[in-house]
Amino acid sequence: MSTIIEVHNLEKQYAPAAEKAVKGISFNIEQGEIFSLLGPNGAGKTTTISMISCLLSPTAGDAIVAGHSITKAPMKVKQSIGVVPQEIALYDSISAQENLLFWGRMYGLSGSKLHERVQATLKISGLEDRAGDKVKTFSGGMKRRLNIAVGLLHEPQVLYMDEPTVGIDPQSRRRILDTVKELNGQGLTVLYTTHYMEEAEELSNRIGIIDHGQLIALGTQAELTQMVGRFDTITVQMDGVMAGEQLLAGVGQLPGVHQADGSVAQLILQTQDAKQLLPQLLNWTDGQGLRLRGVEIQAPNLEAVFLHLTGHGLRD
Amino acid sequence: MKAWMIAWKDTLVRFRDVNGLLFMLAAPLLITAIIGSAFGNFFGGRSELPIRDIPFLIVDGDNSEASQQLIELFTADATLSELLATTVMADLAAAQRLVMTGQARAVLYIPAGFGLQVQGDAAAAGATLELYLDAAANITPNIIRGIVGRVAAGYSTALISVDVGVAQVLDDAAAYGPALAGLQPVVQEQVDQITSQRGRQQISLRQVVEGQEQADNSFNPASFFGPSMAIFFLLYTVMEGTRSILTEEQEGTLPRLLTTPTRPQTILLGKMGGVFLSGVLQFTVLLVASRLLFNMDWGDSPLGILLLVLVFVAAATSLGMFIAAFARNNVQANIIGSAIILISGVLGGNFTTTLNFPDWLLTFSKLTLNYWGLEGFSDLTWRGLGLAAILPKLGALSLFALIAFTLATWRFQKRLNR
């Protein structure tokens, strides 16, 4: 596989006195893979994707996309990429078809090629029957699908998808994830950002974990989970009153607890043997007057990796 | 090509918005109809004079044949008599008291020796009429001043001066308000008749006749309020349109546009083009509708109207882009834009004539697009002038457009290239 995106020490500082939003990120994306940037809100995912979409100028560093520098040849980079932004960026007072025709023209398409691509993307998004309807009459999921269709109009070499499933129903999310896999199956390289661990796990060939503007881990899911060894994750939901620090200090003294994070509402523990720890944990919480609402045990996953690397959960 | 696509898309979006269309087209037509109706026989296309029986006094201190002829000019014609309730008095002080107490609007004093000065050997030295106006009134003194100026001009341009700035009145007689514009030909007819009988002042007479030929002999209030409302509501459309670039920035379509292989300059040009196109279409629809619905007379210079519409919309678009470019966000642009529209509407003469403005206020008025636009349309419509008359207005609007466009483009480029 050849490298289609090379990111070199990319930095972004919005104002001279402000903290850097992205702090010298470097990674490569191979042609034909799905590469996910996983991190919590505000980690720097959108800033990174905006820089390699040529929407923001980097403060330092560069990226080569499909052989073109984002700083020296932004127009050539833009021709090679399709961007699906986090927010739905469509004109809702015109129809789906009119939107696609407009955006297609912005990508330089015209004539029969334009109409052919509009029909093809309507088919991909499953909106052929609603092509003539105004976008404002669409459900959130339909808008999301059309939002993706716009990014595919000009048959880009790479598709950037910035948290495309935020705020939609499970059915639409499922459909979008299936579409991403289908497109990738046809050879399209995808750069996918998300703060949903499950999506990154399901879709990605490789994952870059990003936090506070830094890439803190990079690899396949197997490579990343190996970083935390064989720790299980126990997630406990409770009712009751106890200060967070007191709770973490208390459970931290239980034998076998490797790491603890969270609060009474949701406590996340890492341990080498969940089955052994669980009875002791239940005894302790009962003794503290905390009522158990739910317990979940997970084998090593990206959440655990993130917790291991940062000391806090993905959704904190 | 891409700029045109953006402009066309924006125009399509704007003209599909029913609420927006009501505001763009129905509101100005409705307000024009309401205000126009208040001024008389509006829907019939021609109105009667809205002001009548203005108490006007003449004090003849000369009692000569010449002074009698001058008085006849004010009293002989039926229409003029309807407008002015003229009373001839002998005591100047008593007449002045009537004006000061608001019982009369003006006194025209014909001083002793007037006849000799205009007819005798002393004619070369010139004669002076004195006009005392009611300072508390706004409209009627201007009408009287205009009539006296025109009568004086016709009677003897070379010899008579009225010491209230008649020279200016002569230049701008038609500009003293809708009522005076309707009266102008009537006065001219009287002057024409009397001066012809006397066989004098051929040069000034000829000037008056030429003016009469150019001007329509009646006044349609739509000719004033049509363009006025069109300009006022056009500014709203333009502000709304130019704010759309901030709306797009906020809603994500502008950033998405910037991820396509389209240059920021092209996007900016397209956005401006869309606003310009919508503005021109709006003005054109209002122009045609006001003609068909209200029989409004847009003058005899289609080229002048076309140029004025294009240049005015360009200037308004540039102003809107300027505000949008320097505003922090959509909300701020909306507040600033609305304030500018209202203030410039009042200052520029959309709601009240600027003719009574003191000089210092007129200076501020001239800083608005509304003033130059309205002056231009007034020249072409109810003043009955041609293309040459609006060239200075086109120049002022073009200069305004150039400055605002340059600053807006500079600022937006900086803003888009983050």
Structure description:
With 316 residues, chain A is an alpha/beta fold. Chain A has 2 domains: 3-225, P-loop containing nucleotide triphosphate hydrolases (Rossmann fold), CATH 3.40.50.300; 230-299, 2-Layer Sandwich (Alpha-Beta Plaits). Chain A has helices at 45-52, 74-80, 96-106, 111-125, 140-152, 170-185, 197-203, 221-226, 244-252, 274-287, 302-310, and strands spanning 3-12, 22-30, 34-38, 60-65, 68-69, 81-84, 158-162, 189-194, 206-211, 214-219, 232-239, 257-262, 267-271, 291-298. Chain A is globular. The relative contact order of chain A is 0.14. Chain B is an alpha/beta fold and 418 residues long. Chain B contains 18 helices and 5 strands. In chain B, helix 2 crosses helix 13 (264-294) and helix 14 (302-326) packs parallel to helix 18. Chain B is elongated. The model of chain B is unreliable at 43-49, 157-182 and 197-219 (pLDDT under 50).
**Estimated radius of gyration of chain A:** 22 Å
Q: Numbering strands along the chain, what is their spatial order in the largest sheet of chain A?
A: 6-7-8-3-9-10
Q: Give the SSE string of chain B.
A: HHEHHEHEHEHEHHHHHHHHHHH
User: From the structure provided, what is the oligomeric state, counting identical versus distinct chains?
Assistant: heterodimer
Q: What portion of residues of chain B is helical?
A: 55-70%
The CATH class of the largest domain in chain A = Alpha Beta
